[in-house]
Amino acid sequence: EWEAVRNGTGHTVYSGTVDLTTTQSGSSYTLTDGARGGHRTYNLNRGTSGTGTLFSGPDDVWGNGSPSNLESAAADAHYGAALTWDYYKNVHGRSGIRGDGVAAYSRVHYGNNYVNAFWSDSCFCMTYGDGANNANPLTSIDVAAHEMTHGLTSHTAGLVYSGESGGLNEATSDIFGATVEFYANNSSDVGDYLIGEEINIRGDGTPLRYMDKPSRDGSSKDSWYSGIGSIDVHYSSGPANHFFYLLSEGSGTKTVNGVTYDSPTSDGLPVTGIGRAKAEKIWFRALTTKFTSTTNYAGARTGTLAAAGELYGTDSAEYRAVQDAWAGVNVGS
Ligand code: ASN
Ligand code: ZN
Ligand code: CA
């Protein structure tokens, strides 16, 4: 049977109406992205194993914006995976998680009232729960990019998911979760240095994590200390998230896309930001060519300095900003 790449329409839960790349096979359409390594989005329909069923239908319109329509979260997941693919390809020159042009796949509607999303190496796939009361699927752009980035980290540095390397692994997913959201330039979900601000995971509308001052969440650390490797990796990520914010935007108060941040430094010295476009290049180069499975905070400093030196020179403002931003989170001097 013949197949063709099509341009469908998604009515997402969090990102408004978006274009989706789909496939037409005879008289039916599926959420198969033939332009991005064949990424597919499957419906687990509250199951917790296997792939469920590939989303398919008689027209090329997906969801209605409400989470009660099972196609809506699928549209978010399909869109988030496409954005993340495009970001790595167009900004960093990498074709898919393994760099081989082959896509992962996505599964939505995992379990009942399941309040999490996750990456699995074993299936090479992203999985999304529907949140409390199945009313807030964990499928926003930043969460989708966060989960897909766990796949990238696994296939590059391989940062072990515990201790300081675990915090760096988590931070890498938050960093690129944020940069993909900026890259999307979606008016319904504007770019920010917050993670999970769309999904109401706490029930009071506040974000899951804050990169300007990670301690705003009540648990994450703003700066490195000996012993940070003993706390949950979603909290030991704080200093690296904070580093990335300082390197991009600088210390103090700043408003970006209508959100106001106030980023402190542990040494009280100011940091001048170099812009997100340079900061993301430095982190990606460090992740893919400097970090190893056991890289800790000291090693992340060394690795990002090496990356900045290669990209901009060791006598550059960018190199000095990397030094200053790490000093601002109590790493190195
Ligand atoms: N959503 C979580 C994460 O990506 C799942 C986990 O803790 N493994 O970090
Ligand atoms: Zn994670
Ligand atoms: Ca966000």
UniProtKB/TrEMBL annotation:
Subcellular location: Secreted
Function summary: Extracellular zinc metalloprotease.
Family, similarity comment: Belongs to the peptidase M4 family.
Protein name, as recorded: Neutral metalloproteinase
Taxonomic lineage of the native organism: Bacteria, Bacillati, Actinomycetota, Actinomycetes, Kitasatosporales
